[in-house]
Amino acid sequence: MDSLAAGATIFKNPEGFTPNYADVTNTARCNNYCQNISAEVKVTDTLRKTVTAGQYSDDMARQKANAIKVLKNRIEASLMAGTIATGSSTEARGMAGLKDTGHWDDVAGHAILTTSPSGVSLSETMLNDYFSNTWNGSGTSIKEAYMGSTLKRRISGFTAGSTKNIDSEDKRLTNAVDVYESDFGIVKLFLHRYANQGATDNDLVMLDPEMAKIGFLVRPEYKEAAKTGSFTGGWYETEATLQINDPRAVHVVKRLK
Questions:
Q1: pTM for the predicted model, two decimal places
Q2: What are the angstrom distances between the C-alpha of 229 and each of 2, 36, 225, 240?
């Protein structure tokens, strides 16, 4: 993390001026822990020789394909809602997800923006205020927003900035996607299964995706288990974490109605 000198005022020098060397602020780093995530496969020898429903000649292929999807879901859930854990002999390491906002306060002055209206119904004015807060606080703008079904339907009902658009370079946008055109730019709206706090709490996670990414210590790979019985087993495994380059480019709103 680095910062630029303030540029809010008009800066000018007289002829023949002497430079005024300001103190340099050292860079800082946002930390997180890598989390081990896996998805297992186990098929009996009998089942591998049986033609199952769907006409699979070998059920191992089907289970491995499903395990990859399970692994992706588990990674996605942790990136969104994971809780930081340093790890010990009895506790696994855990990454801080986007919604673990307390962890990202570790760099002074660069905290994730967190709002908790606690039961307030989201309005279009509130949504634009959130976009404004991020732009004012970080110098960047919100480009993506993730939410559950309740907030997605509510935002889709806003009329001032709603439209349909498609970006062929974004592989997630295979069909027309909802976007919201705000005073601070176009924001893509994504329905997300892990965005909500709970069954009755609706959370909204907004960010500039250029400031967040997945960091892999070990990329996903398949490992074959030793033969210990009349079955074949194995698992997909990865070690990954969420990297945030600037927490101020993320805004989490919790417990909306």
A1: 0.84
A2: 56, 26, 11, 32
